[in-house]
Amino acid sequence: MKRLQLQRWSGSVLSAQARTGGRLQQRLYTAIRHQSTASPAAPAGHDQLIREQPQAPSIRPSRPSQSRYNLPSPPVEAARESAKLASLHARLYLPSRLPLETLARSLVDASADPDPNFNNESLATLGHDLLTQYTSEYLVCTYPRLPLTVVFAAMYAYVGPKTLAAMAKEWGVESVAAPGGEVDPGYLQFRRLPPGAEVNPELITGTERPHEEETHWRKSVTSRVVYDNEYGDPVKAGVPPSELPEREAKNNNLGVSHEQASSTFVHALMGAVYLHAGRPAAKRFFEQHFLSRHLNISDLFNFSSPARDLARLCARENFDAPVARIISETGRKSRSPVFVVGIYSGADKLGEGAGASLLEARFRACVASLKGWYLYSPLNVRVPSSMEEEGAAPWKPVHVDLGEVII
Amino acid sequence: MAHCIAAPKRPLVALPFLLPSPCESIALALRRNQSSYRRTKQRLRVKPDASFGSSLTHTQEDHIVHNPPSSAPSVYLTPTKFLPSGDIRRNLRLASVKNNDAEALPPVVRAPSEKKYHLTPSDIREIRRLRATDPMMWSRLKLAKHFECSPIFISLVCETSPQKKEIQKRVLEAVQSRWGSKRRMAREDRQLRKDAWGRDE
Amino acid sequence: MPIQGIRTVASARNGVGAFILQCKQLDFHYCDWAGSSRGMVAYLRHHLHAFAKANPQIEIRVSPRPNKHPVIRGVFVNGREKVICVRNLEPEQIGKKANLLREASGEKLKRTTKPVTSINESVRGIWSPYHGGLNGV
Amino acid sequence: MRPSLRLLNLEVPSLQGSRALYVCSGCRQEARPRPIAARQFLRHASNADSLSERVRRKIWGTDNPPGEKDPYGGQGVLERKFSKQQPPKQEEVAEQPEEVEDLTLTDASYEPATTWAGLERVGHLNRWNDYPRSEADTYESFAVKTKHNQKGPLSLAAHQAAVEICLMHALNKPLVSVCDVTEHEKPIFDMIYECKIQPNGEWSKALEYPNKRTQDTLAYIFEQIGAQPAAPAAEETAEDLVEASELEENGEIADEPASDSQDAPFFGYQDVQDEGFLSLPLTDAVTKFAYLKRFSQLSGHYFPDPIMQQISTVKQAVAYAQGELNKKPKKLAEYLAEDQRLLSLPNVKIFDKRRTTLHRDDEMGRKKIIEAALRARGLL
């Protein structure tokens, strides 16, 4: 199975001595290490993996409950006693191969427990990448002509931090007042921001973008693909592993917002499902909880000059130049006229719009025509990750055309 | 009449022949309580429209009534012209739609201006010179009229001096300073409405 | 920039993909001594395990509340709580009350005038007088 | 007007010097020393020169005005407490014995009544509370002071009672008189301990002595018990002590417990040697009454009438004392905590105590914040 191969790769290649890889690899390593140590209920298939692991650090020795106040997060054995955790497991229809211990771990934010063996950071990194991959391939294959800015907005709407925080709330995940070893592991544990702290810092500095100090320079959409994150937001540059500890120590004094902690939890849960139950379960989890949400993509567009865009589009595609025609109208000389204007290219109607003035109707008709172009969706959409299933049909290339109009 | 309305409704509906007289108000009151089956049947009895399709001649046979919605088309319905050539829907639609070229297209909003492409590089140099020497005299509109082109073309070719921009800005401020609150709000609202066009709200 | 994306949040449709039961916690309170808890004690002894087994997604907490009437408290995903006093009720009636809390959404009760509400777009669109088969006057 | 006007000045320094760093505003108001002028109007009847006392003196014109000293009730609770600590005043002590003597000496033909019939009044004529404790006031319980609940002491008590009743049967003496001696001396108890009971169903023949000498000694002792009151019995016990010491020298007592456990119940013995007494029947009403009385005395358990009706063997009596016959109803939490069907479900939690806000705070990690805040303010 491919999943096992991945784990074998990470377990054998990335030993504790030669851990010079990037941050992602390091986190993957810690995630695997956790799985081998803190999941006594793991199925028998993992035994081989456990043997392959390099010397895994032992879990924390069990201590009496008095000293739980000294722990930064609940001990591993507390997960079995928590009814909250068990009910959350059942409420989300999580696969039974995902043990409660891992679910408890995915609820511990890095701000609560800085130890990477016990917080969800590594799981969240994996889950974040999975979520963005699944969402982006769904969007790109379903709407192949979608402009990139709208793809960014759709990604934000599907797996953005606000959505994930709302999702965690809809799952019934409550958060603790302050993290500690005595709290119920069924709560989301993170250190809260001090009162009055700035939640959204306006300017993110320290990105990898060249000339980032030139704020008035134009940022092309293409450069946002390269330098920015999946929502088109600037992202902080990675830190080499040698500087990792002191930076984490600096960050741990600060808290995180509830939104950020919730989205980290959802990411980590996705990663945990993938690690324990495999790819099909992870895809099912994604489809049931993420793709099933309602999003009207046509509401994400904001045009500034649709007539020019449409003219450029028709010129590019060798259509006849678009012409606005009045389909119907009423009350032209009255206080509240209504015009219905259609955009025609030759004899074919591209779209129509109604407005209180001819200008508005034409504008709206152009918007409708452009949306008709951008929201094209091929039949029988398949995503590339469906090829990973057993016995998948041979891959047919998805529809790709020139897509977005670039002025 | 009052006691008729107050009477239990269901028996009267069930036994319409017991009604004493075809009183209009009772009939109206009873129509509200028709069973949904009858109501549905009645609604379906619509007059055949020309848009229903070509199967009007064979009404005896089973046929599909195509009754297009009386609403603006959805944006998710890609126009046939925008469908890529490999899409199966393109051929299906082309086959089903009759070739009605004979039907005249609706009137255009504004006749597309014929592009003349008559200006030479020397003309463009002249435009730039005129605009640089006397920006107050040679505005965009005047130049467009003089050279028989569109003002947009003038703005593509040359740019006005910063002094002219500053003067224009002052003039605009002077005009706007005379606006009262009503006019200012109306203008702002108009701009907001215009912004909403692009979001299709 | 010709087109800008508008940032929104995809809205949840509970039950379209996964169905999240809105009742997340049920607290059963009883009194060991008082007679009004007789039915509740019998319910907890004989019927609770079946209810808990059928609803693994509900966290069930049983705790005494001495010298008070027995109550069932339901905590819901939306943060609200519903409490039902089950004094002097028979175990079967208490089971019905527990089921009532289980199936509740947690919202305040309100009259539903329309049987169906949907965020999906209408199939035939919103009717407009300027579309459809326009017949000349 | 504050209700605590009777607060003594003595109280004030103790409040002010208390360890509490924080005194709430109400307490601070109470604890503040009052001005002298205001204190003069305090109506302290216990103070000799209180306002009311001085007014009375002035009205009557003498230093010793007639009438009640304090017409508004006695001392306050606090005053009484303080006056108890201080030595009582001389005059009050002097008065009381006179009254008592009056009572006792006036009537030479005084005879204490045994029943209430014909008495005009039942109870003490004066305020009995005010007199010091006399000989008659000391209470000695019929039963032992500590109630035995463990199996070992209860069996020992049942065995001892059975042996004694058997002895009385054999000696043909009134059975109930075994209760005259609550606790025997250690050598006698040792001998009783050594005795065995054959479960043959006959009280008079059931007893089996370890040797002849024990039989003679026990018979001698219990011959004494029913006949005379306690004073000769004490002498006998003294004699027995000598005999018992001889017994000890002979080394016949096998399992002699440590000597430091003298004050322990049953002299440190843990359990009986044989269980034969359990099968003894309690069908005869006199025997049953005597046995249960003695057993009740030794074990400290009270046998209500319905239970006494039910009991027909010694075994049942012991079972009742062990709490097996009518147990306390089991708590639901204990029952549920043993229910395997519920224990196997991970989403069920059962608590045996009421859940309070404090529990929830602890669960959510808020408790430590609250405690830290309270500590920072010196409230904890």
Ordered list of secondary-structure elements with their pairings:
The complex is a heterotetramer of chains A (407), B (201), C (137) and D (380).
Chain A: H1 2-13, H2 23-37, H3 47-52, H4 83-91, H5 100-106, H6 121-142, H7 148-159, H8 161-170, H9 221-227, H10 244-253, H11 258-277, H12 279-291, E1 301-303, H13 306-316, E2 322-330, E3 338-345, E4 348-355, H14 358-374
Antiparallel strand pairs in A: 2-3, 3-4
Helix pairs in contact in A: 2-6, 6-7, 6-11, 7-8, 8-11, 11-12, 13-14
Chain B: H1 2-6, H2 9-14, H3 24-31, H4 36-44, H5 88-96, H6 121-133, H7 140-147, H8 151-157, H9 162-177, H10 181-199
Helix pairs in contact in B: 7-8
Chain D: H1 11-16, H2 25-31, H3 36-39, H4 51-60, H5 77-85, H6 90-106, H7 151-171, H8 186-194, E1 196-197, E2 207-208, H9 212-227, H10 230-250, H11 285-299, H12 305-310, H13 314-321, H14 332-338, H15 340-343, E3 348-350, H16 357-364, H17 367-376
Antiparallel strand pairs in D: 1-2
Helix pairs in contact in D: 7-9, 7-11, 7-13, 9-10
Q: Can you tell me about this structure?
A:
The complex is a heterotetramer of chains A (407), B (201), C (137) and D (380). In chain A, a hairpin with a 7-residue loop joins strand 2 (322-330) and strand 3. Chain A folds into two domains: 2-57 and 71-202 and 240-297, Ribonuclease iii, N-terminal Endonuclease Domain, Chain A (Orthogonal Bundle), CATH 1.10.1520; 301-374, Double Stranded RNA Binding Domain (2-Layer Sandwich). Chain A contains 14 helices and four strands. Chain A is 42% helix and 7% strand. In chain A, strands 2-3-4 form a three-stranded antiparallel sheet. By secondary structure, chain A is mostly helical. Chain B is built from ten helices and no strands. In chain B, helix 7 (140-147) crosses helix 8. Residues 1-29 of chain B have low confidence and may be disordered. Chain C is an alpha+beta fold and 137 residues long. Chain C has a domain at 31-103: 3-Layer(aba) Sandwich (Glutaredoxin), CATH 3.40.30. Chain C has helices spanning 38-46, 48-54, 91-103; strands at 3-5, 23-30, 59-64, 71-76, 81-85. A four-stranded mixed sheet of chain C has the order 3-2-4-5, covered by helices on one side. In chain C, helix 1 packs across helix 3. Chain D folds into three domains: 11-85, no CATH class; 151-321, no CATH class; 332-376, no CATH class. Chain D is 47% helix and 2% strand. Chain D has helices at 11-16, 25-31, 36-39, 51-60, 77-85, 90-106, 151-171, 186-194, 212-227, 230-250, 285-299, 305-310, 314-321, 332-338, 340-343, 357-364, 367-376; strands spanning 196-197, 207-208, 348-350. Chain D is flat and about 85 Å long. Mean pLDDT of chain D is 72; it is low at 1-20, 37-45, 88-102 and 229-261. Classes of the chains: A mainly alpha (407), B mainly alpha (201), C alpha+beta (137), D mainly alpha (380). Chains in contact: A-B, A-C, A-D, B-C, C-D. At the A-C interface, helix 4, helix 7, helix 8, helix 12 and strand 1 of A face strand 1 and strand 3 of C.
